[in-house]
């Protein structure tokens, strides 16, 4: 699972072993994406981020994840803060010609 975040936000919102994005307070969950949907999600929601990151998350380390329909797909939402120890990697999220591309570490 992946979470898209701006680097500044990632640094500012990690405390006490947890990451708490604004969506947790506003909507009650952390937005996650499967790899096959993350490019579209990032382009739609994070095109203006100054320094976008992809946070790679180990699903087996998460608690209450629910899949909810949207745009013809099921998107995972974590109902609670993201435990930092569930994060397996934090990668720069590159763009080519203004569009997000998967980092080389995540390409098949």
UniProtKB/TrEMBL annotation:
Pfam families assigned to the protein according to its UniProt record, in alphabetical order: DUF952 (PF06108)
Coiled coil regions in record: none
InterPro entries, alphabetized: DUF952
Domain of life: Archaea
Listed name of the protein: DUF952 domain-containing protein
Gene source species: Salinirubellus salinus
């Amino acid at each position: 699972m992946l979470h898209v975040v701006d680097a500044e936000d990632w640094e500012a919102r990690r405390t006490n072993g947890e990451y708490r994005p604004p969506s947790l307070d506003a909507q009650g969950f952390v937005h996650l994406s499967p790899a096959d949907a993350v490019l579209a999600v990032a382009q739609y929601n994070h095109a203006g981020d100054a320094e976008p990151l992809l946070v790679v998350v180990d699903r087996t380390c998460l608690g209450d994840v629910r899949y909810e329909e949207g745009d013809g797909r099921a998107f995972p939402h974590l109902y609670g803060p993201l435990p930092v120890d569930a994060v397996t990697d934090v990668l720069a999220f590159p763009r080519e010609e203004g569009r997000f591309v998967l980092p080389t570490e995540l390409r098949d």
